[in-house]
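Predict structure. Chain length: 253.
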Amino acid sequence: MNQVPIQLLKPHPKNKEYYPDTLPENLWNELVRDIRENGVINPLIITPDYTVLAGHLRLEAAQQAGLTHVPVVIRDVDPDSDEAVELFIKDNLLRRQLNDMQVARLVRALKEKHGVKRGRPNNGNNNIIKQDKMSELIGLNEKQLRRLDKLNDLIPELQSLIESGKLGTTAAYELAFLTPETQKQLLAVYGESISDLKQFETKELRKKIEEKEQLEKELEKAQAIAKEMKTTKKLIRRWKKNCARTLPTGTTE
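Prediction complete.
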């Protein structure tokens, strides 16, 4: 472990991409106060070029606390290597106390960045990672991964309720299958009391709404078919009239 000047250290380039949210103000102030009084107890992990892999929040708090040096452990890895990125993600997940919505956004960002696929990639794109590898990386099983990722389909207002701890993720998961328009309608009806719905209630609500939407689609389809049949009948009658005008007298169709 070494003590290095803070000004030499630089954040990992993916830090803000994967972790755009900061700590709540009370937790951040507590971290800064603790580091000001006790220093940085757990060393930062950095690469030989002083890129921070683990300890971004400790670094920022140390800067705010007025420290000039921080303890580090140097790992001889490339900052962009799989090993470095895995370490970077795991450390942040462990230390940032992310809520489910923040983890969900991280899951979506990783999937979009790496084109996560099930099974073995076979299209020659080395940037693609397997879903089970991503599950291992984040520390969640594949089912949890899928359920959290689905939360990204919620409208921002419902996502905010999850972040505030008012809306449970199991109930929110069911709402995420509804269209944004339907989610807005439900929020307009229930308001923040939508947070009081239990999972089985939101599941039943989702079922009824989807059945209603399916019936509406079938009705629209039936109306379209009826309209098409009506148009077809008109065309047939018009064709018969035109044929009657052009046929010689006494000729039958």
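Summary: The chain is about 60% helix and 10% strand.
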